């Protein structure tokens, strides 16, 4: 059976069907049998070639698909770069906000310490004045006041050290994370 678009066996393979018919006749086939055998072989080969060519892709389709994939990859690369830039900018903004918060916290702590010290000094001056007036009665109260003041200052210093340590740990963590992201960005796009 002949199919459109499929060439005959002899045009594809340079197969000489007439020579094959002669060989079959010399082998004892009748002319009709030889022609029939050649037609059957020709049809079988043509059907096989047709089945194979049906599954092949033409050059234009392949070029079009390759071009579309290049376009898709370029688009994806651009989107990834945009996402990385926006994430980096967000991290920078967050880091700046944290620095501002830390500066504000530091200023508030200084104010609290100054206020506490002023209050303590005022209390000390008042206590000293009372001691002068009633020295024998209030000596024990003065000792209690000094002890309480020292404990509060020690507690404040411990709290300040604790806050400083936490702030430094947090800053190191943020800096390390930012540096790691920067290295990943450089490695990914470098």
From TrEMBL:
Task: Give the membrane topology.
Answer: Single-pass membrane protein
Indicate the transmembrane segments per the record.
Answer: 167-189
Please tell me whether the keyword Transit peptide is annotated for this protein: yes
Question: Gene Ontology cellular component?
Answer: mitochondrial inner membrane
Q: GO BP, one example? A: regulation of L-proline metabolic process
Q: Which residues form a coiled coil?
A: 88-115
Q: What is its main location?
A: membrane
Instruction: Cite the entry's keywords alphabetically.
Output: Coiled coil, Membrane, Mitochondrion, Transit peptide, Transmembrane, Transmembrane helix
Localization (cell): Membrane; Mitochondrion
Q: Which family does it belong to?
A: Belongs to the CCDC90 family.
Q: What is this protein called?
A: Protein FMP32, mitochondrial
Q: Which organism is it from?
A: Meyerozyma guilliermondii (strain ATCC 6260 / CBS 566 / DSM 6381 / JCM 1539 / NBRC 10279 / NRRL Y-324) (Yeast)
